[in-house]
Design goal:
The chain is 26% helix and 20% strand. The chain has 363 residues and is of the alpha+beta class. It has a single domain, classed as Sandwich (Jelly Rolls), CATH 2.60.120.330. It has an eight-stranded mixed sheet. A four-stranded antiparallel sheet has the order 8-13-10-11, with no helix packed on it. The N and C termini lie far apart (52 Å). The structure holds fe (ii) ion.
């Protein structure tokens, strides 16, 4: 047996009583590889230190990951473990605040701020008829911009201003999270040449599209709540954007759906950052890069997550890449701007309490 880590496949079923039963099967990477349903592990180390040939070698692995699975674990990504831990520590303190304090940060017209539990139903999900509100609570943040930034002056959603907790209530929150976001943004930029080469494009292809990236972060708390039928920490869904960067949590819960419909646990590789494609990149690549469904089942203990949605500038249009269309491969989607797509996604899935426009009786 090689020294490669084991994978854990975690499936969730319902007993006749309605009680959720979790069964965990330990499988090796080799066994999952044989079934063609493993989540690939991509070692970014050689590329990040500039080894000759490493960019194209990694791009070849990435192409497989994004065309056949839609998710991968990145290792040796250069994001310090201690910084991720400090960010998690701050998040725990924020969500431990009394509800009245959290509601002072309630989501604003810009779509940023605190969103209480049970404010989202992922009705746009193509993989599950989601009917129950999700159990997680969230604080959404955008790239920090000055008050006179053209996007803020123009009132563009998801570009700012951010809502930050009072410094006396959560000392160091803003400073720590901004430090974490800066490192994650740098990580996102480092991945752009790999995505370009994986799509058969010049390495610098994406540079003009990420001049002012509309990245947002979804910092979430999944309480160990009792779920009702068809209810989740976050229900089966696909992400909205370009790529999502997600440091793996110590507490299990995240599951990824394979092509055959099997749910695979994503909590297996220490210090890995999971990366997946969002729907905007799926459309931009004319369906070539998969936006893979995933979900979070209610955890046994409090679970926190720090999802970073690395997205292009707000006005980038999803006109398909030249390598993804041709006489036998016509465009599948109507092109649109990134911001229009994000507006539709949020307004469809979130109630007004969550910064969207969807109507439902639960909130
Ligand atoms: Fe997601």
């Amino acid at each position: 047996m090689s020294a490669r880590p084991s994978a854990v496949s975690l499936t969730s079923t319902r007993r006749p009583s309605g009680e959720r039963a979790i069964s965990i099967q330990h499988e090796t990477i080799e066994e999952l590889t044989a079934s063609g349903e493993e989540i690939p592990i991509l070692d970014l180390g050689p590329y990040l230190v500039g080894e000759p040939g490493a960019l194209d070698a990694l791009a070849t692995e990435l192409r497989h990951a994004q065309e056949d699975v839609g998710f991968y674990f990145s290792i040796n990504h250069g994001v310090p473990r201690e910084l991720i831990q400090r960010a998690y520590d701050q998040l725990r303190k924020l969500f431990a605040l009394p509800e009245e304090e959290k509601l002072k940060l309630k989501v604003n017209k810009a779509g940023l701020g605190y969103i209480p539990p049970k404010s989202s139903i992922y009705v746009t999900s193509p993989v599950n008829q989601n009917t129950m509100p999700d159990l997680n609570e969230v604080i959404l943040t955008a790239r920090e911009r000055p008050a006179d930034h053209p996007s803020i002056v123009a009132g563009r959603r998801f570009t700012g201003p951010n809502k930050w907790p009072n410094e006396t209530l959560v000392p160091g929150y803003r400073e720590t999270l901004l430090e974490y976001y800066a490192v994650m943004e740098a990580f996102g930029y480092k991945m752009l040449p790999v995505y370009a080469r994986a799509l058969g494009l010049p390495a610098d292809y994406f540079e003009p599209f990420f001049i002012d990236p509309t990245w947002t972060t979804r910092n979430a708390h999944y309480p160990p709540a009792q779920a009702e039928d068809n209810q989740f920490g976050i229900a089966p869904h696909r992400d909205h954007g370009f790529i999502t960067l997600l440091p793996l949590s110590d507490e299990p819960g995240l599951q990824v759906q394979s092509r055959s419909g099997k749910w695979i646990s994503a909590n297996i590789i220490e210090d890995a950052i999971a990366v997946n494609t969002g729907e905007f990149l799926n459309r931009w690549s004319n369906g070539r890069f998969m936006a893979t469904p995933h979900r979070v089942v209610p955890p046994k203990r409090d679970r926190y997550s720090l999802a970073f949605f690395f997205n292009p500038t707000w006005d980038v249009v999803s006109e398909p890449f030249p390598t993804c269309v041709g006489p036998d491969n016509p465009p599948q989607f109507e092109p649109g701007t990134f911001l229009d797509y994000l507006n539709w996604y949020v307004d469809s899935n979130f109630s007004s309490a969550g910064g969207g426009k969807r109507q439902h009786a639960s909130v």
